[in-house]
Amino acid sequence: MKTARAWQLGIKDMLIMSGSRQRPHLKRPIWIIVLVSLVSICLIGAYIYPPRSSAACYIFSSRDCSIYEQPIHVPSRELTDDETAAQVVIREILKTPPVHSKNPKIAFMFLTPGSLPFEKLWDRFFHGHEDRFTVYVHASSEKPAHVSRYFIGRDIRSEKVIWGKISMVDAEKRLLGHALEDPNNQHFVLLSDSCVPLHNFDYVYNYLMFTNISYIDCFEDPGPHGNGRYSDHMMPEVEVKDFRKGAQQIDCLEAVINHSQNPLIMWFSMKRQHAIIVMADSLYYTKFKLYCRPGMDGRNCYADEHYLPTLFNMIDPTGIANWSVTHVDWSEGKWHPKAYRGQDVSYELLRNITAIDMSYHVTSNEKKKMMIQPCLWNGVKRPCYLFARKFYPEAQDNLLHLFSNYTTV
Fold this sequence. Notes:
four-stranded mixed beta sheet, single chain, three-stranded mixed beta sheet, alpha/beta
């Protein structure tokens, strides 16, 4: 009260000293009405015309403010007609708020040559969650014989897949196309016949559904097995500075060096928005189809290892996590990753894999630069992996026996 009184006295003295004539005091309720009116007008204006480059947008606007955060891209050169069309489509997809489903589901997409040896394990993983997932199977060599009810009738039209060629990307797009037909599918996971779950369904569901990124491995490798595979024929749409590579978790530096020239399959997990972009893209896909293939210009370029990392590095680099949620062990330093037999499977092995919370990449040049980053989930360090490969079919019994223990969170 003393402070308020002193402030009022100070104002009165200043008015007297300045010789200004004091105006009659308005009654206090009128001041309150005027103040409330002004504030109301400001709030209504901010709601209708929200600030587009401020955190206040999230306070005053009911619209999606993320579209205002994207910097305006000024091309360094004149774009081709195809580029302009592609960028318009991609930009519209990215800025369109996702359609919220009343029953959001995860699409589990299995890419396999034939039957799936771990259907019994997946059956236990899926049991009790029938309304939160869908299954799609692309069998490239022979029609699979299913033993789980969740896989029966879930085969899609399939074509032959040749390892290291664009047919692998075609199979992935074929799976995405079928899965996108269900509007409730909000996240899409690509798995192989040798993949197994590392956590229970609830953990996997929450990990994927309650974040707004895709898990696509992506890093820049200036060496011969990275940018050395780039072809100038990809210009002007794809420049070497944008060329990226996908790799898997490496357990030692020597293994990374030895396997770096081996083509890898991108076992991705992506949100619906990104899946739609993959289906809509023809410009960049065609560049990789024509100019990223084994023997191109004397180089061995593998579209499956480079297409998705490069695409999303160019169009939405902050929308991907830069690591895959599927673990594979290259520690033996061979051309193929370590494969686990029945006797290799133990509680300790599975817990060790699920405890990994750092992602590693190593360049293929002479420097062999290692890049290490924590696996962040909504800004919090979390375990990197939800699935693992490669397991021999004989490992299923041990996995079934251990499942309830190692998947307990």
